[in-house]
Specification:
8-stranded mixed β-barrel; 2 domains; 12 helices; 17% strand; Enolase-like, domain 1
Amino acid sequence: MVQNACIKAREVLDSRGNPTVEAELVLNSHTIRAIVASGASTGKYEALELRDKNKRYNGKGVLKAVKNVSRISNALKNIDFRQQKEIDEKILKLDSTKNKTNLGANAMLAASMVCLRAGALLKKKPLYKYIAEISGRKPLIPIPFCNVINGGKHADNKLKMQEFMIVPIGLKSFSEAAMIISETYHTLKSFVSKKYGTSGVGDEGGFAPKINNAFEALDLITESIEKSGYEKYVKIALDPAASEFYKNKKYIIEKKLTGMEMVDYYLNLVKKYPIISIEDPFDQDDFDSYAELTRKIGSKIQIVGDDLLVTNSERIRKAVDLELCNALLLKPNQIGTVTEAIDAANLAFKSGWDVMVSHRSGETEDTFIADLATGLGCGQIKLGAPCRGERTCKYNQLLRIEEQLSKKAYARWKNH
């Protein structure tokens, strides 16, 4: 079914009040939209997010990217929306650069996502089922990773580590997981308020109290889990985003540490607290430290590459060869098209890794990642706190999907 693709785009706002790209397509009297998320803590190997760099929005306008969606639309005339790989190949050919510097990954992904939704409409399938079909995977509702304390670039405090998350495991449904997350989050709120006074929330909805180190944050979270009565079911995950506090080959955390000293630092944390996953524990180029931590505890916990891998198949292959980690954080806007993101996920699966689909700090009301995580059957999704509409909309979409798939399709935690 050949269609005349007429994709238009506009500049809209993300959850931080910064501009981002929305693509829109009208098909068979249905209006289809897709909005691209944006990160604050970004890896230097990510595909280019095209910004205008003029006076508007303090240089963060995306009108150039919006204009480039029109170029993409022209290149996709008379396309079959059910052929996602062909669509994305045309988009990539139009850009013709390794890092998406011509069109911008934000323009490319907006067009790619809206075409994917058009394909799902023509196939008369929910988006997650269509993603499962084109990825060759079986739908599975993912375990949520919930950000409850923010630091680093996501908060206005002195906490160096960026994210402290709770992870409900060993449960029978996403709805039960969402309930436990909500209850624990509110218990933590009362502890934060009692110890530190009223606390605002960071970019991803986690609390941002004026605390200075990871131990203090982890003590708070552990106390909240115990008070909620969920010690059996709730574990902890970290995203230090260590590239952000790596200067002159030292990690500036509570004190200056070398890579090998940071390995010991994490080993101490894992020994003391119920930590099951650590994302970006080192700088994106500190391969030796990644390999050492993975060698020491990779059989016990998940070591996730984000800035290290940037959803890029080339970097994933390198990390596999060097045994740097054992899981991929999947962010479509790091690479530029849906097909490239799916290919990265499938490469990780083939390599025996786990995959976690992730939001960004600059999120939107688009629920795409909930369907992506389910359709890929990866079993994990990083959602942010059960707070702020751009985060809760993903929780709510997964609750809807659970009604369709039944609770039997909820993921089980893989022991490392």
